[in-house]
């Protein structure tokens, strides 16, 4: 299941974080990072998924 979340995180980073932690601080932070730059959003999403 983590592999699917990581693949989704590469395509749409907030979606991968949402599937992992739901709507919370990490989700909103990921949306902000994705808006500031696509690559920081991907890195944060993969980090959140790998951490849990």
From TrEMBL:
Compartments annotated for it: namely: Membrane
The residues forming a coiled coil are none
Q: What InterPro entries does the record tag this protein with?
A: PMP3 (IPR000612)
One Pfam annotation reads Pmp3
Any idea which UniProt keywords this protein has?
Answer: Membrane, Transmembrane, Transmembrane helix
Spell out where the chain crosses the membrane.
Answer: 7-25, 31-50
Q: Does the keyword Transmembrane helix apply?
A: yes
GO cellular component terms, alphabetically, are: membrane
What protein family is recorded?
Answer: Belongs to the UPF0057 (PMP3) family.
Q: What is this protein called?
A: Uncharacterized membrane protein YqaE, homolog of Blt101, UPF0057 family
**The species this protein was found in:** Thalassolituus maritimus
């Amino acid at each position: 299941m983590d592999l699917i979340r990581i693949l989704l995180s590469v395509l749409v980073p907030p979606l991968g974080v949402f599937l992992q932690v739901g709507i919370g601080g990490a989700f909103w932070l990921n949306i902000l990072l994705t808006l500031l730059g696509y690559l920081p959003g991907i890195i944060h999403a993969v980090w959140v998924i790998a951490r849990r």
